[in-house]
Amino acid sequence: MQMAPRMSACMKELRMNVKEIIQKWLEKNGYDGLFRPDECACENSDLCPCCDGNFDCEPGYKSPCDCGDHDYHIGPDKPSRAEQGARFAAKLDAKLLAGLDANPAKKTRYIAKNGVADYLKLCDLVRNAKNSALDS
């Protein structure tokens, strides 16, 4: 009796499923997720929550919701460089602020180096970015 070869632990780690392959391809090519016109959309971080087995989705770019029914839209149009830059800067600001708030000593050093006004400006930038994301 012949036994099937055993897969090494390393090979098991390299094995990917279709969802992971699609996710990696989307990220590598700069897409934010998938969409089907007038039906559904999903972000890379949560691909195919509809799980309807329909693979006629298209890669797309995330944009703010203008209809008020969703948190975002994903479609074929790539955001401008200015929109992409603003989104990236807002993420960095939020990450920096979260790190400072989680570490009082780091926060104190930041304020000592940059001043209270700079810290408060950072707080305002993050708050305004969150509010504009909620409004859109």
Structure classification: alpha+beta
Instruction: Report how far the terminal alpha carbons are from each other.
Output: 64 Å
**What global shape is seen?**
elongated
Question: Could you give a short account of the major beta sheet?
Answer: 4 strands, antiparallel
- Percent of residues in beta strands? 5-15%
The total tally of domains equals 2
Low-confidence stretches: none
Strand tally is 4
Task: Write up this protein.
This protein is of the alpha+beta class. It has helices at about 10-15, 20-30, 80-100, 105-115, 115-135, and strands at about 35, 40-45, 60-65, 70-75. It has a four-stranded antiparallel β-sheet with strand order 2-1-3-4, covered by helices on one side. Helix 3 (about 80-100) crosses helix 5. The longest helix is centred in the last third of the chain and has 22 residues, at about 80-100. The model has no long low-confidence stretch (mean pLDDT about 75).
Comma- or semicolon-separated keywords:
136 residues; alpha+beta; 4-stranded antiparallel β-sheet
Helix and strand arrangement:
Elements lengths: L8 H6 L3 H11 L4 E4 L3 E4 L14 E7 L7 E4 L5 H22 L1 H11 L1 H20 L1
Antiparallel strand pairs: 1-2, 1-3, 3-4
